[in-house]
Amino acid sequence: MENKFAWEKYDAKTMKSVMAYAEEYMDFLNNGKTERECVDYIIDKIEKAGYRELVPGKIKKGSIKKGDKVYFCNMNKTIVMFEIGSEKIENGMNILGAHIDSPRLDIKSNPLYEDGPFAYLDTHYYGGIKKYQWVTLPLALHGVVVKKDGTSVIINIGEDEDDPVFFISDLLIHLAQEQMEKKGSKVVEGEALDIIIGNMPLKATKDDKKDLVKKNILAILKKEYGIEEEDFLSAEIEVVPAGKARSAGLDSSMVLSYGHDDRVCAFSSFKAMLEAKGIKRTACCILTDKEEIGSVGATGMRSMFFENVVRELLEGMGVYSELTVRRTLMNSFMLSSDVTSGYDPTYASSFDKKNVAYLGKGFNFCKFTGSRGKSGSNDANAEFMGKLRKIMDDAGVNYQLAELGKVDLGGGGTIAYIMALYGMNVVDCGVPVMNMHAPHEAISKADLYENKMGYIAFLKNA
């Protein structure tokens, strides 16, 4: 089946909407390079749109009614939104789910040291990366430092034009004969991903001549941020590529940026919640953390947070019982949104051309993910796929069906299999991406727009 490019159907008015939506998305990328920043951005937008926060344990029975828009926030890293529909909630919800964490480098608990003429921060990479891609790039620091007295210091260094940036060194080509013989996984190893943060020593004194570059960095941290070295013990600082998302191509048809995986689906999910009108089934949007490392921890999808907030929601609606919780979840439909691999002609041998997503031809459904024999996959049933095809076709949305690479070559996973444990109908879908998990990934603006329109159609009609 040959899909046409989504661009072919756009008139001048729609083209303007596509480009404007891409600009809005790029603003989100620029202001949401960590999970915390994404949550802050989203809360600001949804509260202006009429959503109110609910706190577990503080919800009055019967206080939530049809048409209400509410959200729960978990540790500033996960957010769940609900718009209460006109149908009984135990008939099920229409759920959009995505993750807002991305591959990166994390600063270790005891990171600061001096070696030779440099001060370094020691890192541990997060998620699946090609480590050699992270050297010689301008890097930024984002995160939070929490002191023993409970006060927080927000860190964001490297994004403004006047900010310094940081970098990881690489061996010059003139001396790299041995390095160039190594396997890709060994060219740069994990413990070599330490960022250089300074080269200027404090002025030596008669009694103090050791680690003067490190001491100068500590003096700067104390002066500018009120941070002591021991405060790194209670810090979450992420190292990400510095710089803004950019339009790519002479035709400005693409977006090149850090963090498309999976903020592209997260952005379209919460925007669809704001733009879908006249919903019947309760609409839900889950934006979660820790997907890149297995959805573990208190802010990952494997935690009980989502199930617990559904209980809180039903209590607030005055219909709570354990049976109602189970029926609500079992009868729900979900689009588990995550990016997929976009066809790259340079590496054509890695893809099955008949079953791969193409940039510009619309957003993608992955009936199953997993790897080698569908291991670890949720495999959506045919009835649900048929329902979704009709919804998208009736709404005029461009979509594709594809797999993530050739059989036995690789694969990937999402949060779909976790939600399928409730017995609900779940399918993976999302936007094709080139350079997935690299410091800079690429998507099509047309796929971004079709993604949102597909989510709106799903919320209204599933």
Quick synopsis:
The protein has 462 residues and is an alpha/beta fold. It has ten helices and 20 strands.
Strands of the widest sheet, in order across it, are: 1-2-3-13-4-14-18-16-17
* Structure annotation, total helices: 10
Please write the CATH class name of the largest domain: Alpha Beta
- Total of domains: 2
Fourth-level CATH superfamily of the largest domain: Zn peptidases
What characterizes the major β-sheet?
Answer: 9 strands, mixed
Tell me the strand percentage band: 15-25%
Rg over C-alpha atoms, rounded to the nearest angstrom: 23 Å
**Global outline:** globular
Q: Which structural class best describes the helix and strand composition? A: alpha/beta
Share of helical residues: 25-40%
Task: Give, in order, the helices and strands.
Answer: HHEEEEEEEEHEHEEEHEHHEEEHEHEEEH
Number of strands: 20
Low-confidence stretches: none
**What's the rounded overall pLDDT mean?**
94
> How many angstroms does the end-to-end distance come to?
24 Å
CATH topology of the largest domain: Aminopeptidase
Query: What is the name of the CATH architecture of the largest domain?
Result: 3-Layer(aba) Sandwich
